[in-house]
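#help-structures

NK: newbie question. if I give both the sequence and a SMILES, will the prediction place the ligand too? trying with zinc ion
OV: yes, paste both and it writes out the complex. here, I ran yours:
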Amino acid sequence: MVSETRLTPDAFVYPMFVCTGEGVRKEVRSMPGVFNLSVDQAVIEAREVHALGVPSVILFGLPDKKDEVATGAWADDGIVQQATRAIRREVPGLVLMGDVCLCEYMSHGHCGIVKPTLPRSLGAAAIDVRDAKGVVVARTKKEKEKAMDEFVAVATRLAETNYEIVNDASLELLAKTSVSLAKAGIDIIAPSDMMDGRVAAIRRALDEAGFINTPILSYAAKFASGFYGPFREAADSAPQFGDRRSYQMDGANLREAMREIEADVEEGADMIMVKPAMPYLDVIAAARERFDLPLAAYQVSGEYAMIEAAARNGWIERERVMMESLVSIRRAGASIILTYYATNAHE
Ligand SMILES: [Zn+2]
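OV: that's the protein plus ligand as structure tokens.
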């Protein structure tokens, strides 16, 4: 009666990873109890989730093929689109959230379109080439070998291009993906890419396609985090080069997080999210104070994996820590919690 914070299943959203094939139920190595599911299995799981009183699932996709324009994200027969239609049909009443990002569908694993840029210093490379010209005047075998090594080193340096994320071209694909998901039956569009201006771009595209009532839950404050490790295995979405620090947020910055959320709200976000949850409870609390929209927090894969691993070693009490972790997120101010414990955590 005097408890200030309550955990009820209606606050939870259960994340699901859908893959191609049939009868597939493949456990994610670093996330015991979490599976890659083919559409038929996803339907079964969605039915169970719904029966437990959990109102919503968020769908992530593992496509068969990846490419440089993330075709699998926005194709009519994309894996999430297929799963959405099936769950919509078989489990009416379950609220379907669609994660919108490109990393799971890009061959390079980044959240946007990637453009190679020139090496940092062409001038330095030119000087290296001049110095390596010894290769042609070398006489002895040893001289030749040494010169050849230098030459290879220079060539390698020249071949090493840097890259950058092309923000605005990425927005087009994100908008296209959102419309495709809404068409398939997704109720809530949840962009997680962290490109600038994406909420506005998605809102515009949804409205133009007639989905004026489809809300956007924006991953407004998504921090670059080591806690995403196991997810990248679950969704097979690790970047093949570089990292995501150029578009995800710096974990040291609370005020910047408020600015990011504010920008998303101004662009038309209907709900906002902080991710990860436990290392950023202060951000959740600050966001709760400052914004009046529904506030979600994502208890991410690493948070789940830590609890599971320690519990398996007998170092902590699983149930107790699970509930404590979720209560803390709720107490910090999140009204919606995305968690792999959605089907377990029931008082
Ligand atoms: Zn991404």
